[in-house]
Design a protein that fits this description.
Two copies of one chain form a homodimer.
Chain A: E1 3-7, H1 14-26, E2 30-35, E3 41-43, E4 50-52, E5 55-56, E6 67-70, H2 75-79, H3 83-95, E7 99-102, H4 106-111, E8 119-120, H5 127-132, E9 136-137, E10 143-145, E11 148-151, H6 157-168
Parallel strand pairs in A: 1-2, 1-6, 2-5, 6-7, 7-11, 8-9
Antiparallel strand pairs in A: 3-4, 10-11
């Protein structure tokens, strides 16, 4: 069974963290929440989803994890101003380990400058940002390009989670 | 006295609409809120700032206004998925009339593809998006480049408002 880091902070899209995390746990994997401060409680956009941060991003290494989950909402916008969060995401993508990214999650990949030449999808509002980062934007429910697995938003969660579990098997 | 359109929807950064709008009104200008639906009430991030939308963006023309204000927060992220909002912003920038943009406001300019070769500032989280759009990111409290006037966020509001009022004189 594998250990998956989920990088998240306040205003995450609730279902985009909760549903994949529950599916991972139910299939025997371990989910470690990575955020700005260890022990901090962060909240989703609906204010109904408190999540405790297990590890501070400046204290973790890619070596400790088998895959990375980047939920969307406004959490990626908040995370991308922290150099340590951007570096962690960049290291994950370049490591070749699976990176599961949904909705606004690609914003972190843009700041990490790892999208040049990649095929990816994401939320409608950031399509031009994705294209300007040198990636090919693909309007499909799940796009797999090497270790990068992406979906557009909550409506794509079933396909996103199915693909994630298949890849981790 | 001039008529300034303020394009705004839910989750705007409260002070970035309220403070410039009040300053404009107090100096004799008219502020017209432009949003998705006429008559809709939208709310700022703090839930303390209800704003009634005067005009739907699909019913307005640049000819009706002398300048455009784009407050930040998450309002620009929500607006940039509406083609009519993007077209209105694009038409304003290319008209040569003043466009005052702050914080996440440049996200609308990115989707409108009007930043190539321009000098602009904006919120820290979107620096890479601004650069990828072909603009020069300038880390100053106010950047004036032709008709494009930009600031980084709430802390820059005094300088942003001073510059706005000077330009409209």
């Amino acid at each position: 069974m594998l250990t998956v880091a989920a990088i998240v902070t306040n205003l995450f899209e609730d279902s985009e963290f909760i549903d994949p995390a529950e599916a991972l746990k139910k299939t025997g994997h371990t989910v470690v929440t990575v955020g700005i401060r260890e022990g901090e409680v962060v909240w989703g956009k609906t204010d109904n989803s408190p999540v405790k941060i297990d590890r501070a991003v400046d204290s973790v290494s890619v070596d400790e994890f088998d895959a990375l989950l980047i939920p969307g909402g406004y959490s990626p916008d908040k995370l991308r101003v922290f150099d340590e969060a951007v570096e962690f995401v960049r290291a994950f993508v370049t490591s070749g380990k699976p990176v599961f990214v949904i909705c606004h999650g690609p914003q972190l990949l843009i700041t990490a400058r790892v999208l040049e030449g990649r095929r990816i999808t994401g939320y409608a509002s950031i399509v031009q940002d994705i294209k300007n980062a040198g990636a090919e934007y693909v309007d499909e429910e799940v796009v797999v390009d090497g270790n990068l697995v992406s979906s557009r938003g909550p409506a794509d969660l079933p396909a996103f989670i199915r693909t994630m579990l298949e890849i981790l098997e």
